[in-house]
Amino acid sequence: MPSSRRIPALVAAAASAAAALTALTPTVAQAHGAVFNPVSRIAACYAEGPETPKSQVCKDLVADSGTQPLYDWNEVNIANADGNSRTLIPDGKLCSANRDKYRALDWARTDWPATAVKSGTFGFKIRVTAPHSGTMTMYITKAGFDPTQPLKWSDLDATPVAVYTTTRTSTDGYYAFDGSLPARTGRHIVYMVWQRNDSPEAFYSCSDVTFGAAAATTAQAPTEAKIAAGATLSTVSHAGHGGDEQPPALSADTAEAPDSPLPLALAGAGALAAFGAGSVLLARRRGNQS
Hints:
The protein is an alpha+beta fold and 290 residues long. 28% of the residues lie in helices and 22% in strands. A hairpin with a 5-residue loop joins strand 8 (186-196) and strand 9.
């Protein structure tokens, strides 16, 4: 029978073990994606091929930052944005979300592959490797925007061209919704902010568009075969806010539960530790009553 002095120590040790095991359980973060219409900068370069980019700007991106940003095309995010995107992202860093990994996306160049558009109704398509609930807000640059200058918050029209409530499911891996593009001429940028409402995490995207004339290089979205081919080289995790745990899921029906039984095992171990502490106390009380 343990002494009365040992009981508190046993209980504290068991509680600490339970807390530690619980802390090791990964947090599920399952919202990742990129704009495929109009095609975002990172999606366009990934479609060309990280190892064999075709356009000069995509070649320069790989020369500057390597191929990993392209394999991680669905991860331009801030883990703890919590609705504070304008505070956290400085002018000139909107396309990269102020992440050095994606710094090349901020280049103010007029040779980014672009999508030809016109004013009026536009069908947006966002490829999501893991749908989640939140709000997707699409902005466009103001009339007179100078694409040779870094994108600033003040360059964006205050009125979004679309606002879409995202859900925990998607159709064939896409969110698709209509917006309305205003009258513009020349080259502009469509900017997306996707803020989750079940997490502080937010995602961002820059898509180059041209009004009135086709771009020198037309942006192409990655095919499903291209996405699948590069999945094993991605470091994007759906069990956290990035890392090396697993490649992106490709199913539109991405499960909320983690693929690995580890979280459940750790949680179970924590529960057993707590149960053990309770059992020790109960045994001691019964001994005192005998």
